[in-house]
Amino acid sequence: MKMILVFFILIFPVYFAVREQGPPENPGLFNEFENYYDIHINESTIFLPDTSPDFAIGQALYIHGNIKISMRELTAYFQKYDTFRYGVRVNNTNLETLSFLQPWFVNPLDDSVNSVEITNNRNLTSLGFDFKDCTYCYGSVVITNNPKLNLKNDCDGIIAIYNTRRKISGNLADCGCEIIGGFNKFISTMPSSCWMLFGNVTIDENSDLGVLQKKFANVTRINGGLSVQKTLFTDLSFLRSIELIDSDPYQSTVFYSIVIKNNPNLISLGMHAKRDGLYLTIRDNPKLCVTPEELTNFYAGLGLDSNLDVTVCFKNETSPKWCELKNTTSLANLPEGCEVLVGDLVFDEDFDFENSYKLFYVEYIFGSFTITNSSLRTLNMLPNLIKIRSIRDNKNPIHISNNSGLHEIFFTFSFQGVESGESCVIENNPSLAMDVHTCSILKGRKEPKTGNNFQNCGDDTTTTSVRKYDSTPLNIDVYKGVPKFLEVSHAVDDPGTVTQNNTWDRNFTFIEDSDEDEDEEPEKSTSCFQKSIYLNITVVLLIFLIFE
Ligand SMILES: *[C@@H]1O[C@H](CO)[C@@H](O)[C@H](O)[C@H]1NC(C)=O
Ligand SMILES: *[C@@H]1O[C@H](CO)[C@@H](O)[C@H](O)[C@H]1NC(C)=O
Ligand SMILES: *[C@@H]1O[C@H](CO)[C@@H](O)[C@H](O)[C@H]1NC(C)=O
Ligand SMILES: *[C@@H]1O[C@H](CO)[C@@H](O)[C@H](O)[C@H]1NC(C)=O
Ligand SMILES: *[C@@H]1O[C@H](CO)[C@@H](O)[C@H](O)[C@H]1NC(C)=O
Ligand SMILES: *[C@@H]1O[C@H](CO)[C@@H](O)[C@H](O)[C@H]1NC(C)=O
Ligand SMILES: *[C@@H]1O[C@H](CO)[C@@H](O)[C@H](O)[C@H]1NC(C)=O
Ligand SMILES: *[C@@H]1O[C@H](CO)[C@@H](O)[C@H](O)[C@H]1NC(C)=O
Ligand SMILES: *[C@@H]1O[C@H](CO)[C@@H](O)[C@H](O)[C@H]1NC(C)=O
Ligand SMILES: *[C@@H]1O[C@H](CO)[C@@H](O)[C@H](O)[C@H]1NC(C)=O
Ligand SMILES: *[C@@H]1O[C@H](CO)[C@@H](O)[C@H](O)[C@H]1NC(C)=O
Ligand SMILES: *[C@@H]1O[C@H](CO)[C@@H](O)[C@H](O)[C@H]1NC(C)=O
Predict the structure, then answer these.
(1) Alpha-helix runs per DSSP H in 71-127
(2) 437 vs 27: CA distance, rounded Å
(3) Full-prediction pTM beyond 0.85?
(4) Residue 211: which residues within 8 A CB-CB, separation 6 or more?
(5) Considering the domain 177-312, what is its CATH architecture?
(6) DSSP code for 71
(7) Which residues pair with 333 in a beta bridge?
(8) For the segment 10-22, what is each residue's pLDDT rounded down to a tens digit?
């Protein structure tokens, strides 16, 4: 049904270059669900026009003045309308709510770039509909001078649909206060009602700590970027009430960032802000120590690339899911159940195979991962690894060298690559095929460096030898006496038999991701994005079919 509507909506403007009222001349284009006349409702409107109750598509809707029509009549009249080809303007009315509207597809008004204008409505307290549902609200939105209108709960929807294409001011609570001009000047005169800031918060050597402390006390959200550079502050606890710093990279025309850089006295952040849809840079703060909690928040939403050169400080209250790797290759001291490792993970000739089951749940490594001179064949002890993020500039995020038997790395679909300014280095692994796909996954801000592997990023001229035939290409064969791992055989036999009675077999049930997965958000938005692309493709195809 919706599909059919989209089809009609997109195809008609092709025929009507100049907008006319009334049904189309070509009867073949007539749509029984469409009202072909603009709807005007004003103070002299006593009755609503007697139109088909099946109408779902309108042209333009103008509501103006002291409306005498009751809310019940309005609700009944607009029951099925969700589409306005030429916009919605509600200006200077006495309405308290617009709950009779349920916009889903709205193009801009004739005389402006705005698809929806809600202005000067002195009694309006709530919108009564959710902009999130207005999937095809094009153009911009204007919501101004409605003195009783509190938009706090509507902002997410408005931002999701219109992002920066919005003008919102003069309401009881607006969707953020737009940062105009230099930030230091703006903040000193910012009204205390500004709970959300819209734009770039730029704190620098000229910022006044007293002003920041006072003005940020009630700010809970930044829709835009944050930059703290060249300050002498020892912490950023004046930002502690901020819960979210976000931007939608799919909608916004700019990519925003959180940048905390060149602050010589900064010891701790003291922030709780979650990052969603921004880049992250924290570096050149020589005294700074970032806590796992702060990092967890910074990676809570959709994260664009991160650029870190930081120390991570563990406290005794740090979540047990975060584990610090001491500078030792032994896994014996590693606790069980770690999901995030901080430090440099090294597999070498002393690889502690027996304790490697402790890596089973690891998803993220903040630091580096080295495999050198090992007898490993696969990395099946790390089936859940998702990402490796550098926290030191002098370390390659991944360094895999001199492993004669290694033929498979990051074989699972979960692995998403590295966030790093350094290259991954993979060399002298004669069995390892670094195919083009694997190389593209290992590309951070720099291309991976490969050489003397079985394959080297599609450049096969350096291949030295024919790959050796390996009859049992699994680690079990290398580490004699150590029992089998998951991949070899697991839970196929009855408890107590050989395959169950080993250090690999842990009492886990397959993890049904109940808790918040760090990367759930992006997947959601990606699939949503893709859905609308498919929708668009389908629409284009339909148009072609018609013209054929
Ligand atoms: C109300 O709208 C009608 C058109 O529907 C228009 O003729 C009339 O002038 C308008 N009245 C006022 C007071 O704006
Ligand atoms: C909104 O109403 C006011 C008061 O009647 C009028 O001055 C203004 O031009 C109207 N705005 C629009 C965009 O029609
Ligand atoms: C709207 O507000 C005016 C004051 O501006 C008031 O006189 C009027 O009764 C209100 N109307 C409604 C329907 O609440
Ligand atoms: C914070 O908000 C409260 C109530 O919303 C208000 O009373 C207080 O003055 C505000 N504080 C600042 C510093 O603006
Ligand atoms: C905000 O900062 C970003 C870079 O982080 C920049 O691209 C953008 O133009 C800035 N926006 C404004 C409004 O200053
Ligand atoms: C954490 O360590 C501090 C001292 O470093 C100690 O006073 C505090 O009791 C510890 N907290 C817990 C929960 O162990
Ligand atoms: C571990 O690192 C510390 C300081 O970084 C150093 O003093 C110590 O010798 C290192 N231990 C080993 C076994 O490398
Ligand atoms: C590689 O491992 C072997 C033992 O398997 C050891 O003798 C040799 O010294 C190691 N080489 C390097 C470069 O670490
Ligand atoms: C790899 O092996 C070569 C030759 O055996 C040796 O020169 C090199 O140092 C080794 N690299 C590492 C990282 O162990
Ligand atoms: C299981 O392991 C224990 C010790 O590790 C051993 O005593 C026992 O015989 C094993 N059971 C089976 C069925 O292999
Ligand atoms: C696994 O579960 C069994 C019974 O459910 C229990 O006896 C055993 O101790 C558990 N083993 C481990 C390593 O937790
Ligand atoms: C779908 O098409 C509309 C215009 O018809 C465009 O604005 C929108 O960005 C498209 N969406 C995607 C995901 O391509």
Answers:
(1) 71-77
(2) 54
(3) no
(4) 187, 188
(5) Alpha-Beta Horseshoe (3.80)
(6) H
(7) none
(8) 444 444 445 778 8
Q: Which residues are CB-contacts of 439 (< 8 A; sequence separation ≥ 6)?
A: 447, 448, 450, 457, 458
State yes or no: pLDDT of 496 exceeds 60: no
Say which DSSP state 97 is in.
Answer: B
Could you tell me the distance, in angstroms and rounded to a whole number, from the CA of residue 106 to the centre of ligand 2? 21
- How far is ligand 1, taken at its centre, from the CA of residue 105, in Å? 26
Q: Which fold has domain 319-511?
A: 24 nucleotide stem-loop, u2 snrnp hairpin iv. U2 a'; Chain A (3.80.20)
Domain range summary for the chain, segments of one domain joined by +: 2-129, 177-312, 319-511
H/E stretch holding 343? strand 340-347
- Residue-wise pLDDT for 69-126, tens only, equals 999 999 999 999 999 999 999 999 999 999 999 999 999 999 899 999 999 999 999 9
Pocket perturbation via mutation, ligand 9, pick of 428, 429, 452, 464 by most ligand atoms within 8 A of CB:
428
List, in sequence order, every residue forming a beta bridge with 246; answer none if it has no partner. Answer: 223, 276
Q: How far apart are CA 38 and CA 89, in angstroms?
A: 12
What is Dmax (Cα atoms) for the chain?
A: 91
319-511: same fold as 177-312? yes
Ligand number nearest to the C-alpha of 451: 9
State how far the Cα of 202 lies from the Cα of 216, in Å rounded to an integer. 13
Q: How far does the centroid of ligand 5 lie from the alpha carbon of residue 200, in Å?
A: 6
Q: For 112-167, what is each residue's pLDDT tens digit?
A: 999 999 999 999 999 999 999 999 999 999 999 999 999 988 988 998 888 778 88
312 beta partners: 290
> Is the separation of the CB atoms in 458 and 435 below 8 Å?
yes
- Class of residue 497 by CB neighbours under 10 A (exposed 0-12, middle 13-18, buried 19+): exposed
Ligand 10, CB within 6 Å, residue ranges: 496, 498, 501
Of 53 and 107, the structure prediction assigns the larger pLDDT to 107
Average pLDDT, the chain: 83
